[in-house]
Every structure is written in structure tokens, then in C-alpha cells.
Write a structure and sequence with these properties.
The protein is built from 5 helices and 5 strands. The protein has 156 residues and is of the alpha/beta class. It has a 5-stranded parallel β-sheet, sandwiched between helices.
Length: 156
């Protein structure tokens, strides 16, 4: 496969078991060094804005792709999606909703608010690893990223 972008993937997930399984799946896909995790929508906002502990962009680089759960404490994932898509500064961040919800209303609303994709979390870690491999193949290898997400040294 072509060289994949070196930029960050932001996981917005409050369930520590899901975070653990995601870390394992990302490691199997060769993406573990790119993963940054926040536990809720408010922390995701702080991360994106570079506020507080996230001010150090060397440690907390701007993501090119965000995996967002819908059911989050303090701020729902759908409200985070609405906030992200209302800001021109984040318009090129690929937003993938990863939720256990299969409700058509949740899926429709996510797409209406600008989600790039909606994935239902598999309950099986093996299926999650397959999903992350597919995500890597499409969003990080086949999809044409913005200039900010290209590997360094790539032609613009």
C-alpha cells in the first residue's frame, strides 16, 4: 500500500474496555503511535482547540481523523460533531462515528451533521481489528487527504 499519513487519529471514547480493544486493533494495524484518546466531548473540544494540557502540539498534534462515540459523558458525540462541523478550522478533519447504536435516527442525524462515515462497533475484538484494517486501507491509504495530513516530503 502507499505510504500512509503520519498524522494523528483522535479517539473520543469513555469506555475503557473499548479504548483497550481499540489500542490493540490499532497496534495490529500499525497505527498505535498515531492514536490519542480523550474520554468525552468537552475534552475533545479542548484537544482540538489546544487548550490546557493539550496546548503542547508536539504531544497532542492536530488530528486528521477522529473516531467519535455517540454516548459520551459531559457532551454527547452528536453535539461534538455539530460543534466540529460548525468551525471552519476543523472542516477537513475526517469524522467517523463509532457507536454501538444501530438506530436509523442516530445514523441519519450523524450524516446530516457532517459525519464522513458511521460504523457500528463490533462486539468481537477480531472483528474490530478487521474494521480498523479496513479503515486504514480506505481512509488512510486510498482516500486523498488534505495537505495537512500528507506524509512529510509528499508533493502538494
Amino acid at each position: 500500500m502507499d505510504e500512509i499519513p503520519t498524522n494523528t487519529i483522535l479517539l473520543v471514547e469513555d469506555d475503557q474496555d473499548d479504548v483497550l480493544f481499540m489500542r490493540i486493533a490499532m497496534e495490529k494495524a500499525g497505527l498505535s503511535g498515531r492514536l490519542r484518546v480523550v474520554e468525552d466531548g468537552r475534552d475533545a473540544m479542548d484537544y482540538l482547540e489546544g487548550n490546557g494540557i493539550y496546548a503542547d502540539r508536539a504531544a497532542y498534534p492536530m488530528p486528521c481523523l477522529a473516531l467519535v462515540d455517540l454516548k459520551l459523558p459531559r457532551m454527547l458525540g452528536i453535539d461534538l460533531l455539530r460543534w466540529i462541523r460548525s468551525s471552519p478550522a476543523y472542516e477537513t478533519v475526517v469524522i467517523i462515528i463509532m457507536s454501538s447504536s444501530q438506530q436509523r435516527s442516530d445514523i441519519r442525524q450523524a450524516y446530516q451533521l457532517g459525519a464522513n462515515s458511521y460504523l457500528v462497533k463490533p462486539s468481537n475484538p477480531l472483528r474490530l481489528a478487521e474494521m480498523i484494517q479496513a479503515l486504514k486501507a480506505y481512509w488512510l491509504c486510498l482516500n486523498q487527504p488534505t495537505a495537512e495530513c500528507l506524509p512529510s516530503g509528499s508533493p502538494e
